[in-house]
């Protein structure tokens, strides 16, 4: 299992478009992805779970990836978050 913390720096946090991009990225992989914000966990493959976190700009999230392709999955997730979800 790989764990990394990120601070959301894009304008709207994990709302509609960024959440959809994240879920789309996560679903390319076999690994399980759990996103945690303030002790609330979300399945990274579910748009409803990700949106329910209510993660805003400046919030810290923890992403845990577990599975055969966890390193590739985490690398893509990290690139997406660090690129501010390609929105700016």
Structure description:
The protein has one domain (2-86): Histidine-containing Protein, Chain: A, CATH 3.30.1340. Strand 2 and strand 3 (40-43) form a beta hairpin. The chain has three helices and four strands. With 88 residues, it is an alpha+beta fold. The mean pLDDT is 97.
The CATH level-2 architecture is identified as 2-Layer Sandwich
Strand neighbour order, sheet with most strands: 1-4-2-3
* Percent helix range: 25-40%
Global morphology:
globular
How widely separated are the two ends?
31 Å
Order of helices and strands: EHEEHEH
Q: CATH homologous superfamily name?
A: HPr-like
Gyration radius over CA: 11 Å
CATH topology: Histidine-containing Protein, Chain: A
Structural class: alpha+beta
Give a quick account of the main beta sheet: strands, pairing sense, barrel closure: 4 strands, antiparallel
Count of β-strands: 4
Q: How many helices does DSSP assign?
A: 3
pLDDT < 50 stretches = none
On the 0-100 scale, what is the average pLDDT?
97
């Amino acid at each position: 299992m790989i764990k990394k913390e990120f601070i959301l720096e894009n304008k709207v946090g994990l709302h509609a478009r960024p959440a959809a991009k994240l879920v789309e990225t996560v679903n390319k992989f076999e690994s399980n992805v759990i996103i945690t914000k303030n002790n609330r966990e979300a399945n990274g493959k579910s748009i409803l779970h990700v949106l329910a976190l209510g993660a805003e700009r400046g919030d810290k999230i923890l992403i845990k990836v577990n599975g055969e392709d966890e390193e590739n999955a985490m690398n893509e997730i990290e690139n997406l978050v660090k690129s501010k979800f390609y929105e700016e």
